[in-house]
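Notes to self after the call with IL:
- keep both proteins in one doc
- input above output, always
- annotate only the second one for now

Protein 1:
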Amino acid sequence: MSQVTLYTTPTCTYCRVAKKYFEEHNVEYEEYDISQDMEKAKRVVEMTRQTAVPVIEVDGEFIIGFDKRKLASALGLD
């Protein structure tokens, strides 16, 4: 099973879409609200050079935004 981490903010529409996608596909994930967790926010910026959300980490690979095709491929759902 893949290790999945979702970095979000409360107002992010595509973060909610990603969570729904995970639920529909029975994907377990850890979620971090980077508006409240500055340590995680700093890590995301260091690893991706991006400040946009959602950022989805699958087994160490970062996907910026909700890209269904990339996400399905990373999770082996394609």
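Protein 2 (the one to annotate):
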Amino acid sequence: MTNPTRVLIVDDHEIVRRGVVGVIDTVDDLTVVAEASTVAEAIQRAELTRPDLLLVDLQLPDGTGVDVIDGVRAVLPEVRAVVLTSFGDPQARAAAQAAGARAFVLKSVRGGQMLDAVRAVAAGRTLLRDTPVEPRGDDPFELLTPTQRRIVELIGDGLSNREVADRLGVAEKTVKNHVTSLLATLGLQRRTQVVAWVTGRRRDQDPQWRHAPT
């Protein structure tokens, strides 16, 4: 018998989490291994329970569902994600897709539809059919995730990995994984080069940097 898909539910409304758990509990091929109400809690519980799939809301008290996907995939690269949200705007869909979400499901759908989406993603399918937003120009900063942009900014402020982890409420190992990834994206080899890169960008007073997502 195939083991059930292990699901981590992330939503800051307990009544929503309870409803989702109730739906998933009606089937045998899915099981809820943990719940979380914040980005930090989600990443911590993912590290402990190692889910196969994230079912995550976009709006959370300390960040977004995109931050959850980024943070968990830094530790569990193979984890799959389904965004379950009240918001259906194209920008939110694009952000979720860019972070690696495989499906974008509105909370207004019936329980059976949600289960169908979760099962499809667990089986390896992708239900996001819209064309993703493409980076503008050749700026590598455009290729960083919102979490990586925040980490770059904090490194530029002189914070250590441990201090960045404390600021974001994640494990230091998670920050290190992000740093490794963003160095490759920026074409840099050492963390100290990030500081110089940030300093130069700020010196040029690039408005795109000032308005980067946090």
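Annotation: The longest strand covers residues 30-36. The CA atoms of residues 2 and 106 lie 29 Å apart.
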